[in-house]
Amino acid sequence: MKMLAAVLYEQGGQFVFEEVDLAEPKENEVLVKVVAVGVCHTDEGGRQWMIEPPVVLGHEGSGIVERVGAGVKNFQPGDHVVITVASCGTCNYCTKGMPFACPHMGALNIGGKMQDGTSRISKNGKEIKNFFGQSTFAQYAVVNATSLVKVDKTVDIAMLGPLGCGFQTGAGTVLGCLKAGPEDSLVIFGCGSLGLTGVMAAKIAGCKHIIAVGGTPDKLKLALELGATHTINRKEVADVPAEVTRICGRGASLAFETTGAPAMFTIALASLGALGKVALCGVGNKFTFDPMDLIIGSKTIVGSNEGNLSYHTFIPQMVEYYKQGKFPFDKLIKYYDFKDIEQAFQDSHKGLTVKPVLRLP
Hints:
The structure is a single chain. This protein has helices spanning 41-50, 105-110, 166-177, 193-205, 217-226, 240-248, 262-270, 292-295, 311-323, 341-350, and strands at residues 2-8, 15-22, 29-38, 61-68, 80-83, 121-123, 126-128, 140-144, 148-150, 185-189, 209-214, 230-233, 252-257, 272-280, 300-303, 333-337, 355-359. It has 361 residues and is α/β, with parallel strands linked by helices. The chain has two domains: 2-164 and 328-359, Medium-chain alcohol dehydrogenases, catalytic domain (Quinone Oxidoreductase, Chain A, domain 1, Alpha-Beta Complex); 170-305, NAD(P)-binding Rossmann-like Domain (Rossmann fold, 3-Layer(aba) Sandwich). Strand 1 and strand 2 (15-22) form a beta hairpin. The model has no long low-confidence stretch (mean pLDDT 96).
């Protein structure tokens, strides 16, 4: 079938809107009409360095099932679905509800191919690479059923795509990876979509201190509205760890570093008290640390991949939290027409929009 897609032909280049071919779904695959798709910093990584073009990016898609391939049992036309991160579905981790630990995740998400080693997208007979098993900067997507999560039809499907990656990572890191609770003091570094959904999740968890650290006053104000008990403007406070200690009475028990900036990681580690744990999910930079910074205080660093939770249970749980008024992630979203994809990327890069979401025609 023919469809409109935003194709990237060179790293760091502009998106090209053009008609491409999409093959029919194969066994265990589903054709989804994409309603909307979030713009994530991982898409920027895909644009700049993560995958060799030509490729159709987009990995926070949501839409409606159009057709199902052979062997698909849990989905049918008309279902509303969120498309999440690709995993094999058959390994020891996937079958135990831990797809975030799938050893095939790298190949399936940034290897440019579906599980059978090909892409469903082409132009004039030449294959165009797949991204995250979905490539949802396009009107339609062929997706393996393991990457689909059925969601409540009473909630606007257009806003649910970011639950498949960014929002899932932010909230999931707090509730799943860090397992925050009422006795915890949590400090979150970065007030983008990861940090702010982390703030909301910390409020759900009932953390006694929820400290948001950022450099933009408007976002720090929003963090307070979403549940932060305190904020720290890193541009105005010279010693952030000392301020965390002042607020909490001691170092924080938990920290969530969302920016991927080496300097912020160093500060996050220093903000922890004894037995403290810091979760990392930012990508794009490498950094080092002194092991003594862990040994003294018996601190822990843990990596968070999509919150280290089962997508298939946590995404519906986030929708339920939203319906209950506990997880108002819609406050982070600004919608853009598909044709305005470049503006969406620019606004995200400048911090003007927390979570751009593209509406597909």
